[in-house]
Amino acid sequence: MSEHADPAARADDALFRPVRAGNPFEETVERLLQAIKLGVVAPGDRLPSERDLAARLSVSRVTLREAIRALTESGYVESRRGRYGGTFVNDRLPKPRRVAPKRLARELGSGLEDALVLRAALEVGAAEAAASRDLSDEERDHLGSRLADTAGAKLADYRRMDSRLHLAIAEASGSPSLTSAVADVRMRLNALLDAIPLLERNIVHSDEQHQAVVEAILAADPATARRAMQEHVAGTAALLRAFLT
């Protein structure tokens, strides 16, 4: 893949990477859910073909079909027949399971701090790396588009658009491995965020911080991009600690 590969293709490659041999069914379900929940494949969009997905995930088509069946039964996708058929992400996705903050805090133990430290290390580094690269016009447009999508998102769609913007920043780093790691930590983070209220004031503040991060990346200013992302992730961490500890 060239340094300036299409950003959407880069995201697909990062999430639809080969699964490990030990638990192919479980990991296939996890990869597909990542792509859906993080907005790489949006509601109404079609998943890659069965043959393509099986090859990219390095699983049998039987395993892939079982994983898709599980997601169909859970309400995430539907299969359509005919010339323009395939597996499509449902327009309305299942709502996240709500867990009481105090209960989640007990279940997490030290896992909250582990997730927050990992998130900070990965996403601050991704912003700095993205600002250090000579981005293509496609990559710049992709970042701008994701920023606009997040700023204009409805409340019900905000978490998915927010996740997709952060994943786009990781994609702009040019490292598929970093993008995969950010996708993994975003899934952990979203499980925590789903347990606390989505506050309008916090959304406004987050949008302002997102703007600062993307502007620094587009201006090729690594130091400012790093500081802006540090401020952003610190704010989210403070909110989570306030509700969960």
UniProtKB/TrEMBL annotation:
The keyword DNA repair does not apply. It holds the Pfam family FCD. CDD domains: WHTH_GntR (cd07377). Residues 22-92 form the HTH gntR-type domain. InterPro entries: GntR_C, TF_FadR/GntR_C, Tscrpt_reg_HTH_GntR, WH-like_DNA-bd_sf, WH_DNA-bd_sf. Gene3D superfamilies: GntR ligand-binding domain-like, Winged helix-like DNA-binding domain superfamily/Winged helix DNA-binding domain. The keyword tRNA processing does not apply. PROSITE patterns: HTH_GNTR. Keywords: DNA-binding, Transcription, Transcription regulation. This is GntR family transcriptional regulator. The lineage of its organism: Bacteria, Bacillati, Actinomycetota, Actinomycetes, Propionibacteriales.
